[in-house]
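Supplementary Methods. Inverse-folding protocol.

Structures were first reduced to a discrete structure-token string of length 231. This string, shown here, constituted the complete conditioning input.
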């Protein structure tokens, strides 16, 4: 289903067989300017409390076009077929994995509490994540569309639902719009579809190592990206 935000390349509309009434397409700038300025605190947290053994920092990872790419038809590069039920229908999608995905997750899980946060349906996301991390040793928690804030047909990942100190939270997403409420917590990553030479996840390991020593990751990310200028 096509996103209502022009050039938005996130997973907020992926793996959804429902259709919605057409609305005028907005530019990213128009979307940011239209956002409510005082969004109520979600109140309920969607993750369990940290354990003593839990790393201090939390790394939130988007799924589609950040870690994987899925198609409804076979491609030359797909690795696995994922089947799931959606609205009473059996759906099959063909999934490709971004280069160095497992190496990245193994490195990240040693220093971060890793959370997969997707705007896709739980039935689809669980099957993909089961293939990536069958024993759930690398990705400790999963959040889905139900944990997102829906606004004008798009899904925003309000990091307050994590119940973690935001000075210790990093989100990696191919769409800045997905973390529009906490721009200074985000690392925008290039969308991935099928490039076998992609090295974004390798580069990300180096950046995360540098950020991990900062007392508050937000000033460090603001200095690197300054995404708040869009808000």
């Amino acid at each position: 289903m096509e996103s209502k935000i022009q050039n938005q390349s996130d997973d907020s509309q992926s793996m959804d067989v429902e259709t919605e009434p057409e609305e005028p397409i907005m530019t990213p700038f128009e979307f940011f300017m239209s956002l409510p300025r005082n969004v109520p605190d979600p109140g309920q947290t969607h993750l369990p409390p940290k354990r003593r053994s839990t790393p201090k920092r939390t790394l939130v990872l988007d799924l589609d076009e950040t870690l994987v790419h899925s198609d409804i038809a076979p491609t030359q590069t797909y690795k696995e077929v994922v089947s799931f039920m959606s609205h009473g229908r059996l759906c099959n999608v063909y999934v490709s994995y971004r280069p160095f995905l497992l190496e990245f997750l193994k490195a990240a899980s040693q220093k971060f509490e890793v959370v997969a946060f997707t705007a896709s349906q739980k039935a689809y996301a669980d099957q993909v994540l089961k293939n990536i991390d069958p024993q759930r040793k690398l990705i400790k928690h999963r959040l889905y569309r139900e944990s997102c804030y829906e606004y004008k047909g798009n899904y925003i990942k309000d990091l307050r639902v994590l119940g973690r100190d935001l000075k210790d939270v990093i989100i990696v997403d191919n769409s800045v719009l997905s973390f529009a409420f906490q721009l200074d917590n985000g690392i925008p990553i290039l969308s991935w579809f099928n490039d076998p030479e992609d090295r974004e996840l390798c580069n990300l390991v180096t950046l995360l190592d540098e950020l991990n020593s900062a007392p508050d990751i937000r000033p460090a990310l603001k200095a690197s990206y300054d995404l708040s200028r869009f808000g």
